[in-house]
Amino acid sequence: MSVTIGILHPGEMGAAVGAAFVDLGHTVLWATEERSAATRERARHAGLRPVGDIDALLTRSDIVLSICPPDAALDVARRASGFTGVYVDANAIAPATALRVAEIVGAGAVDGGIIGPPPTRAGTTRLYLSGARATEVATAIADARIEPRVLGEGGPTAASALKMTYAAWTKGSAALLLAIDGAARAEGVADALAAERALSTPELADRLAAAQRAADAKGWRWEGEMRQIAITLLGAGQPGGFHEGAATIYARFPRS
Question: Does 256 reside within a domain?
Answer without folding.
Answer: no
